[in-house]
Amino acid sequence: MQTKNPRLTIVGAGPGDPELFTLKGIKALESADVVLYDALVNPVLLDYAPHAEQIFVGKRKGCYAYQQEQINELIISRAKSHGHVVRLKGGDPFIFGRGAEEMEFAAQQGIEVAMVPGISSSLAVPASQNIPLTKRGNSESFWVITGTTKEHKISKDVAVAAQSTATVVILMGMSKLAEIVSIFSENGKQNMPVAIIQNGTTAEEKMGIGTIETIENVVAENELSNPAIIVIGDVVKNREDLLQYQANYAENQQTW
Fold this sequence. Notes:
The chain is α/β, with parallel strands linked by helices. Helices cover about 30% and strands about 20% of the residues.
């Protein structure tokens, strides 16, 4: 008979590299009775919960293992039957991850809830490729925008961001790349640098760099697709300098 306290912990799995997972996330998994995990979660992380029931509830290539309503019900049923449910979600669950929605639903059903933040891919993936989202003289702020809204349309915020001097990071935007290019071109930013990073921080990582004018050709040449992050802004130019600094240091180390 179930005697454990029904509870839900939403845990951010980070951008993909398991070494970028948090210690608090590890502790949550170690105490889990059930783990519901998404497609962008590195499966290595499941090793921290060897005795928990592990259920894949993610989406792959447009195919849903579970609809959101089914996931919500699974959270409640497993919490009541097993105890501690860990909902493991890629990146940070509060950045386009529905983490807050799932916590609200569970709380309304009388389930104890908690949140463990994750390192957001919107920040970590550009950084891992030596692209700073802000840098004095280049960018004083950055936007993180979903490329595709609930209605499967491009976010209106893209058009507003294109008028600013901020770095623009677009998640889930590859299917809208032509529209994004058009919006930035209409704002006279054909020469604005763009980086697209697919499967960032993982062994399958791929990247292409160009400008608003050339990025669609770069995507075709490099066969880039989802899951990918689009970074638009002058900060992309810093990548070559930072890579050169690292190369120079490595070369000097070898000569000492």
